[in-house]
Amino acid sequence: MSPPSIAQLPSESTTTPTVKAKSPLKSSQQHPNQKHTFPTNANTLDYARSLDTNCPLRHLRNEYIIPSKANLKVKHANDLSTPNDSSDPAIYFCGNSLGLQPKCTASYITAQLNTWSHLNVHGHFRPIADSPLKPWQELCEQASDLSAPIVGALPSEVSMQATLTVNLHLLMASFYRPVGKKCKILMESHAFPSDHYAVESQVQLHGYKAEEAMILLEPVDGEHVLSTEQICKAIDENVDEIALVLLPGIQYYTGQLLDIKTITAHARSKGLTIGWDLAHAAGNVPLYLHDWDVDFAAWCTYKYMNSGPGGMGGLFVHERHGKVTKDENTGKLDFRHRLTGWYAGDRTSRFNMDNKFVPIEGAKGFQVSNPSAIDLTSLIASLSVFAETSMEELRKKSLSITAYAEHLLLSDVPKVDGQPAYEIITPKDPEQRGAQLSVLFKKEGLLEKVGEGMEEAGVVADQRKPNVCRVAPAPMYNSYEEVWRIVGIIKGACDA
Hints:
By secondary structure, this protein is of the alpha/beta class. It has 2 domains: 175 residues, Aspartate Aminotransferase, domain 1 (Alpha-Beta Complex); 247 residues, 3-Layer(aba) Sandwich (Aspartate Aminotransferase, domain 2). Helices cover 32% and strands 13% of the residues. The protein has 14 helices and 18 strands. The strands form 5 sheets. Strands 4-10-9-8-7-5-6 form a 7-stranded mixed sheet, with helices on both faces. Strands 2-17-18-16-15 form a 5-stranded mixed sheet. Strand 13 and strand 14 form a beta hairpin. Helix 12 runs parallel beside helix 14. It comes from Cyphellophora attinorum. One of its GO terms (cellular component) is cytoplasm. One of its GO terms (biological process) is L-kynurenine catabolic process. It is found in: Cytoplasm.
């Protein structure tokens, strides 16, 4: 039995907000490189607190639930105190892995559950009264409209669906079109394992051997990061064999922000297709995917975008690839090949059930199946907080708070066996990094000691064995005082 049509359903009052999509910001509007200098008293707690007092975004911290130190230390769920003890919050520096829960998420989820329980199948076409959410058939559009300004895209170029690796597979199914010797995918050698596995399986699916069809870029000896020049040179040297370039916006291990604009322009000038994995870039740094002429991109939303564990992913397809045209003589549709499914079909004809596929114009024509309403709801709740500010304002604080962390880390670096205990392998240039500093410890076992010190002090920070701790101050909710405290813990563990 087909779901009822809109005409069959009675109307119901609602306060669903009208989402006014913002146009993508021009790349010339990026915030200029900030040079941060600090006074002689910058290493004091009073100074850190003064920065918090004068921070224009300090109120956003109140939009999130910060776990208490007591709850982080419990070994069994039954021992959790409810609610979190706000008088003794933990220091959470793991937003580059999983963001904090917005306080509004619970009420958004409740509204969705009420729609399901009160309206059931009718929820596809109308929400319950006073819900901040659109009907389920329009929920992806609501999430896409709110996400578009975060990645610098037209709303029609964004689709919130599935998860990161699934979306990469869907996009590569459309954009990786190997022919003859032009069959190789250029990527970095230290890509996140999931990306590597996805690319490896895609080339094998087309009948190629991974070792022959994958060009893996390595940093030059003595370096931790890939330079823009090195990437562009590799494109030039392999242009006749490359079928696709796939790179990370921000490299997860080092925290390097690649020059997406320059690399994209270079690849496209050579007639190549280029896509980006923005897992660590979306919600972290301003992006201008439309203006940069990126072919496609995919990202997760549970890191800096705070949608919850395993939250809904997103994808971008430039408008030139999402066009659907019809031959006036034959009536045949012309659109970019992709893996198709019912939810990529135009809603006006979707319920005809005639097996005549007419894709939605734009990125939503790359959907395959019905996106989870619960996952979209959790994402929209988080995006409502992003709507209170802009990526440019978040970037200002990010540059400032990351520079402060760098200043503290590099002031009087502790020594172990007469040598500096650590170095920062994230680029020094603020325009080549996001809200992350990767600290590489020089002595075996030192990372574990630092980790023990953090755990004892109620600090959550990401560790990448064998020797890197990723210090990631998320501008939405981390404070300068927290930066001061976490650096003190790192130095204290090294001294000990």
